[in-house]
Design goal:
Layout: H1 13-17, H2 25-39, H3 49-62, H4 65-92, H5 117-148, H6 175-178, E1 191-193, E2 200-206, E3 211-218, E4 223-224, E5 226-230, E6 235-239, E7 245-249, E8 253-255, H7 258-268, E9 278-282, E10 288-294, E11 300-305, E12 311-317, E13 322-328, E14 331-344, E15 349-359, E16 363-365, E17 370-373, E18 380-382, H8 385-389
Parallel strand pairs: 10-17
Antiparallel strand pairs: 1-4, 1-8, 2-3, 5-6, 6-7, 9-12, 10-13, 11-12, 11-14, 14-15, 14-16, 15-18
Helix pairs in contact: 2-3
Length: 391
């Protein structure tokens, strides 16, 4: 179901992305990426083709400055026209005549006169009408100014009291590219923070003032344990540490444990899709040559590790892709590969449907010059995702 239409959002485009009409272009892009990661038809469980099409339609308009300006201008003109029509309708419709407003024509005797009585009544009506029109214009101005004003945000950052959501390797995670590192509050997580135009503020209850006071902000995909819903204000009470609890607006959270939070983080920060044969990582030089071939129907990432376990070569191969690499250092390497969908540059893994395996036989360069990746390789064993992701 599409969101309801509003005066400043006649087609509901801002509501579809979950942002306000005053949102910046960066907030619109971030909101679209957030919803696209969840609603894309290829995403398991949360995929929704109709909802994705509606969000894409809104993004196509709001992401283009000229189209967004035309949409906002049309909304403002429609709002002004509606206000003008409402004012003219009220002025054109006469108020019901009250008995006390009826002028009684009294007999005029010689020597007695009431000059200008009817004239003063008409002057009073005109003044009241003008005053009412000015008051309505002021109300419309105040309402539009309030709606277009940027939201007030809390700038303080909350200090994490637990380890960051794993895995975020030192080489893969860069705060400049992927934002603040998600945190994990105390307790067993059952919700995590989703990206939104406005930051997720963590509040504490001030018992003396009986009011909520901001403690700071939680970065997207931070994991929390919610213990109850406060229906009066739509806030979820969460465990902050062993001594205190806090509150977060329910519209900033979605159910999910630490694993779900990590998967959502990896999908949101996937970055551009690597091209076939792209080098994701390489160390050392030599004279060996190696040809790689991916016979799987899904993308694959192949890693060569030396005897210390460090990655010497990491390569992305498209389905059916082939690539040749020269100048590799000679030596004995352990070969690992993973297949899946949506390679995440932030997490160094596939964000969906990942399966990681390690080949039993070692690769010897330069004696071995050809490597084939097949999903059901008999001479390979499954390994944990964390083991594959480490560098």
């Amino acid at each position: 179901m599409l969101p309801p239409r509003k005066r400043l959002d006649p087609d509901g485009y801002y509501d579809r992305l979950g942002v306000k009409p005053a949102a910046t272009q960066a907030e619109i892009v971030a909101a679209f990426r957030s919803k696209a990661r969840l609603l894309h038809p290829d995403v398991p469980k949360t995929g929704n083709a109709n909802a994705f099409v509606a969000v894409k339609q809104a993004y196509d308009v709001l992401s283009k400055r000229e189209r967004r300006a035309a949409y906002d201008r049309a909304a403002r003109e429609a709002t002004l026209a509606a206000a003008t029509y409402s004012r003219m309708s009220r002025e054109a419709t006469p108020d019901p005549i009250k008995p006390e407003d009826i002028l009684v024509r009294r007999p005029v005797f010689r020597g007695a006169a009431e000059p200008g009585r009817q004239l003063r009544f008409l002057d009073l009506s005109v003044m009241l009408g003008l005053g009412l029109a000015a008051f309505l214009c002021l109300c419309v101005y105040q309402a539009v100014t309030h709606l277009l004003a940027p939201p007030r945000t809390v700038q303080d950052e909350i200090r994490p009291n637990a380890v960051a959501v794993e895995p975020l390797s030192a080489g893969a995670h860069q705060a400049l590219l992927y934002g603040a590192t998600p945190v994990r509050l105390a307790g067993m997580p059952n919700f995590y923070v989703v990206p939104a135009a406005n930051p997720a503020v963590l509040w504490r209850l001030d018992a003396e003032r009986n009011a909520l006071v901001p403690m700071g902000q939680l970065p997207p995909f931070s994991a929390v344990q919610a213990i109850r819903l406060v229906r009066q204000n739509g806030m979820l009470e969460v465990i902050v540490n062993d001594h205190s609890n806090g509150f977060i607006s329910a519209d900033h959270l979605i159910p999910g444990n630490a694993v779900a939070a990590r998967q959502a983080y990896c999908g949101y920060n996937a970055g551009p899709m690597p091209r076939d044969g792209e080098l994701l990582e390489r160390r050392g030089n030599g004279s060996a040559t190696l040809e790689m071939e991916n016979r799987a129907v899904q993308p694959a990432v192949v890693k060569l590790r030396d005897e210390t376990g460090a990655v010497v070569l990491s390569v992305f191969l498209a389905p059916g892709g082939q690539a040749v690499f020269d100048g590799l250092p000679a030596g004995i390497y352990h070969t690992e590969f993973a297949i899946g969908e949506l390679w995440s540059r932030a997490c160094n893994s596939f964000a969906a449907g990942m399966r990681a395996r390690r080949m039993d036989a070692s690769l010897k360069l330069p004696a071995d010059s050809h490597l084939v990746v097949t999903p059901e390789e008999p001479a390979a064993a499954d390994i944990p995702e964390l083991a594959f992701e480490r560098n």
